[in-house]
């Protein structure tokens, strides 16, 4: 079998997908309960609400919006457990958000027998988001393969699974990870429906959008993007069907609010609708990399943003690129309209990430085929950022002289090609770019695998009970990936 025939072999591709996805899922799971560090209040807003709703029938948790007169304070003080301490007022009832994601997150803790008045172990409450991460990766592969082919699908899922910011975001137990899955899945089904015109595909769309909305109100907004795509293709009846179908799920949310406390439900939702937004929303979104409430300067994320903007401008007339650009800009506007003008609620950005991964893969492919000086400098300067996450107080950053030497050496072929236009320099530039991408993935994998050991060196952090997934590791290779 020749290299080319193996490259196109179905058996080879299936084996590659199996090995790669096993690796990706393991990387996402390694220390998922330890990093991001346990104790994010946003996670507990969902999990406490869910476990209280399951065990008492009343949604109770803390609220960033403050207490309304009709609410009781079920608990006020410090909740301590697992070497963690959170100062909160637990409000009853709590109707800031729909119940579905809380039921999943708190339900996982309930199944493991956790105490609802304790700091629930991250290994329990993050299980739903971990499964959503696995499913989103699969749909990302299928969507990209449908539009751009097998190898582009492999590259986009690799970026989504090995860029540190993307991976850490997939671990945080927030509703946006569920919405990300439903968003990309309903877009994939829309593409299939436009091609096959099968009604069973259409029938799933309002259900998926409705489930996204029952996780968080912003999930309902997906319906407008799907209606937009259907109307663009003159499918008016289908657009009405999807809109009416989603309306049933909006009714379910209203029924839930009425069953608990209708007046409180209205007051809270009206207050949330008045969250300050403005013209700094989009600039803030485009300049605020992160996955929690702190900025996280992952070069792969910055590269992905450049890619999304470039492709949206340069390739918009191609329907395949157009769809990815529209999916990106639609959710960006959802964030601008709902996420607060400059609030560092960076989980609102999560549904953008699969589409950023696709954009990054497409731009990398173009850069390797036709490299130039600017794209080479961007790739070298951004895609090796994983090295910076391998340092702490005891592990220094790269030495300045060594850094300057490495960067200069890597961009030299591109400079020489720009000056002299010799084919040999172009070939060297391509080799450098491929090497930078491979090394970037390796450094990212080290950064993800070693995130908690590096963060916790000579420090104490809360650790809850573990699960099968939290004890995942990669046989043999772990010695090359773990920085101690």
Automatic annotation (TrEMBL):
> What's a single GO BP term from this record?
lipopolysaccharide biosynthetic process
Keywords assigned by UniProt? Answer: Cell membrane, Glycosyltransferase, Membrane, Transferase, Transmembrane, Transmembrane helix
Domain of life of the organism encoding this protein: Bacteria
Where does this one sit in the cell?
Cell membrane
MF term (GO), any: pentosyltransferase activity
UniProt feature coiled coil, ranges:
none
A single Gene Ontology CC term: plasma membrane
What is the protein's major site of localization? membrane
Q: Where are the transmembrane segments?
A: 124-143, 150-168, 174-194, 206-231, 243-265, 299-316, 323-340, 346-365, 372-390, 402-420, 432-455, 461-482
The membrane topology term of the UniProt record is:
Multi-pass membrane protein
Q: Where is the Glycosyltransferase RgtA/B/C/D-like domain?
A: 98-250
Specify the protein name: Glycosyl transferase family 39
Species for this entry: Candidatus Daviesbacteria bacterium GW2011_GWF2_38_6
């Amino acid at each position: 079998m020749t290299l080319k025939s193996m490259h196109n072999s179905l058996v080879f591709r299936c084996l590659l997908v199996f090995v790669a996805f096993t690796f990706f899922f393991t990387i996402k799971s390694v220390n998922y309960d330890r990093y991001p560090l346990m104790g994010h209040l946003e996670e507990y807003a969902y999990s406490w609400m869910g476990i209280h709703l399951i065990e008492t029938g009343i949604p109770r948790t803390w609220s960033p919006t403050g207490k309304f007169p009709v609410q009781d304070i079920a608990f006020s003080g410090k909740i301590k457990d697992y070497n963690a301490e959170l100062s909160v007022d637990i409000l009853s009832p709590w109707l800031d958000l729909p119940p579905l994601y809380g039921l999943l997150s708190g339900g996982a803790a309930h199944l493991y027998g956790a105490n609802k008045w304790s700091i629930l172990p991250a290994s329990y409450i993050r299980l739903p988001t971990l499964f959503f991460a696995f499913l989103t990766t699969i749909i990302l592969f299928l969507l990209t393969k449908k539009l751009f082919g097998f190898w582009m699908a492999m590259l986009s899922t690799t970026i989504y699974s090995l860029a540190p910011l993307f991976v850490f975001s997939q671990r945080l137990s927030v509703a946006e990870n569920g919405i990300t899955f439903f968003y990309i899945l309903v877009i994939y089904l829309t593409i299939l429906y436009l091609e096959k015109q099968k009604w069973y595909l259409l029938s799933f769309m309002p259900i998926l959008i409705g489930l996204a909305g029952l996780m968080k109100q912003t999930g309902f907004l997906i319906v407008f993007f799907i209606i937009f795509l259907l109307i663009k293709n003159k499918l008016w009846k289908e657009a009405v069907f999807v809109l009416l179908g989603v309306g049933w799920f909006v009714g379910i949310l209203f029924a839930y609010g009425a069953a608990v406390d209708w007046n409180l439900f209205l007051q809270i939702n009206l207050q949330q609708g008045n969250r300050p937004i403005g013209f700094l929303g989009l600039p803030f979104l485009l300049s605020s990399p992160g996955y929690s409430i702190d900025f996280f300067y992952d070069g792969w994320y910055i590269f992905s943003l450049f890619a999304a903007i470039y492709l949206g401008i340069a390739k918009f007339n191609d329907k395949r690129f157009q769809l990815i650009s529209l999916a990106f800009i639609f959710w960006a506007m959802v964030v601008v309209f709902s996420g607060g003008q400059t609030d560092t609620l960076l989980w609102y950005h999560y549904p953008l990430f699969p589409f950023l991964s696709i954009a990054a893969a497409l731009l990398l492919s173009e850069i390797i085929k036709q490299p130039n000086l600017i794209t080479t400098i961007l790739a070298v300067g951004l895609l090796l950022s994983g090295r910076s996450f391998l340092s702490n107080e005891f592990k220094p950053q790269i030495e300045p002289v060594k850094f300057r030497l490495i960067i200069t050496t890597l961009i030299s072929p591109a400079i020489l090609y720009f000056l002299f236009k010799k084919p040999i320099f172009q070939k060297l530039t391509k080799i450098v770019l491929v090497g930078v991408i491979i090394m970037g993935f390796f450094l990212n994998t080290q950064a993800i695998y070693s995130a908690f050991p590096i963060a916790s060196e000579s420090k104490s952090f809360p650790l809850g009970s573990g699960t099968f997934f939290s004890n995942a590791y990669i046989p043999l290779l772990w010695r090359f990936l773990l920085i101690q």
